[in-house]
Amino acid sequence: MKLIILLFCSCILLSCSGRNATFGAPFTLKSEKSITVSGAVKPANYDRIIRVEGDCYQVCQTEGCWLVVTDGKQKLHVIVKDKDFAAPMDCGGKKIALEGKVQEQLTNEDDAREYAGQAGRSEAETNAIIGDQRVPVFVITSMEVVQ
C-alpha cells in the first residue's frame, strides 16, 4: 500500500514539474529557427516547413480542432494535419510553438467570415467578405505549449 501511495505521489509531482506539453510529431526545426506569425503569413513562407512561436489567441472549445495564433500584430488560423491530435482547450493565452506549413486555401464565404471573426476582425470587415476567399491556414504537425 505504501508503494502505491509513493507511486501516486511521484506521478503527481512529475505532472506538476512545469515541463512544456508537446503534441504530435517531434519538431524538426530548432527554436532559434522560429519566425513570427507576421513572417509566417508572407507568401514566401507558404508551403515550406516552418516553426512559429506566438501566443494562443483562441482555441476550439468543442474538440481542440483549430486555434488562432498571434504575435500581437497578426493572427493566423491553425488546423492540425489529418486531425492527428487535438490542441488542449485550456491553452488560450499561453505561449505556443507550432511546426508545419502555411497553405493558401480556397475557403467558402461562410468559413472565411468565421475565420475573420476568430482573428478579431470587426463586424464591418467580416460582413464585407463576399464569395470564396483565398486565406492562409497553418497546417501543423507539431505543437508545444510553454508552461
Description:
With 147 residues, this protein is of the alpha+beta class. The chain has one domain (20-145): Nucleic acid-binding proteins (OB fold (Dihydrolipoamide Acetyltransferase, E2P), Beta Barrel). The chain has 4 helices and 6 strands, in the order H-E-H-E-E-E-E-H-H-E. Strands 2-3-4-6-5 form a 5-stranded mixed β-barrel. It starts with a helix and ends with a strand. Mean pLDDT is 87; it is low at 1-16.
So what's the overall shape? Answer: globular
Can you tell me the CATH class?
Mainly Beta
Helix content: 10-25%
Q: Count the beta strands.
A: 6
Task: Describe, in short, the structure shown.
The chain has 147 residues and is α+β, with helices and mostly antiparallel strands.
